[in-house]
User: What shape does this take?
Amino acid sequence: MNEIEPTERTRVRRVPQRAVYDRETIHRIFDEALIAHVAFSHDEQPFVLPMAFVRIDDAIYLHGSTRARMLEGICDGRPVCVTATLVDGLVLARSAFHHSMNYRSAAVIGTGTAVMERGRMLEVLEALSEKLTPGRWPEVRQPNEQEMKATRVVEIPIDEASAKVRTGPPADEKADMSFPVWAGTVPIALRYAKPVSDPNLSPSVALPDHVRQLSDRRGKNHD
Amino acid sequence: MNEIEPTERTRVRRVPQRAVYDRETIHRIFDEALIAHVAFSHDEQPFVLPMAFVRIDDAIYLHGSTRARMLEGICDGRPVCVTATLVDGLVLARSAFHHSMNYRSAAVIGTGTAVMERGRMLEVLEALSEKLTPGRWPEVRQPNEQEMKATRVVEIPIDEASAKVRTGPPADEKADMSFPVWAGTVPIALRYAKPVSDPNLSPSVALPDHVRQLSDRRGKNHD
Assistant: This one.
């Protein structure tokens, strides 16, 4: 098992049996999550924003406008935390106290750097696009020079990272096992609904397979 | 419209036309989100964790173990940020550059205080339970003294808060409108799947309506 060595800052202290430092598990959580919550601090006041992101190899990539102050701060070396969470279900116990959620959450902390090389920036943007809508990138109008100049891509290495995972049924007290209430889990997942065409779309343009497949792909996991 | 006055710290700077300061919209986002991402800082390094939470009136409530260091830090006056995000869909534009997501995100910053009064703690725990599984609280085994002593409830007033919302079709450049690729949105929503009984559940206990209704309630919004 390829583990990321937990540091003083990433070792999970609360409910340590849920901690995961396995690199593959951490990668898989980042890969399945559509967004991450990205935090930076200013005078000990944290700020958290949702962002699209992509993992490639051992790094997380964010992107945005060159005018976005948060990305500018990251490139200036401001410490950052990127956390992605998948809510997998409600855990309904017999006791109020043992109610919980099943979830998978991965967090990386550290500092980022700007990706400056044009070819690498494009690779990252393509990877992000292919993560969210596999097969779409080659079909869309590619970024022009002005758009590339307005875009900042930031790399955050997955050096200090950990995950926390809860799975399985509720963990009630022995004394509660005969309490007369239903107990179990209610799985939760994201679902893509029917695509909605842009009102300005030319009627001659058909729905491509790469969009239709989004609903098909996710639908399977849900029942 | 009941607006929360934006401060220097909560005014949305990037894409300000997506900013919302209306209290009702902010409340609705917090009420629909199952979890929030909660951040605190230590020596300018932010840490972000997913947590269940509930809004009551003009405050956010977190809860956890009295041994949880983050909640302890909040009670000691450490500044916190609580952000909740609903991903509503993929926005597929004709140009790579204008791809986006539809989402609603609300954030509150500030400091929290411990809720110490036992009756109020119970009200908060009941409100959290009723938010996630309406109708369940009266049916479960209520918290005992030991469990209440092990639980910390923290209140964070919604004084400094803002939301950011994107809705609608892609915003392509005029020059791209005839580019021959499908454009539009793919709505995304959470879906509850079939409940899974605890393997130790007595066969005489039936699935209650409050659990069955979870899948029914959400299923409607998705197609």
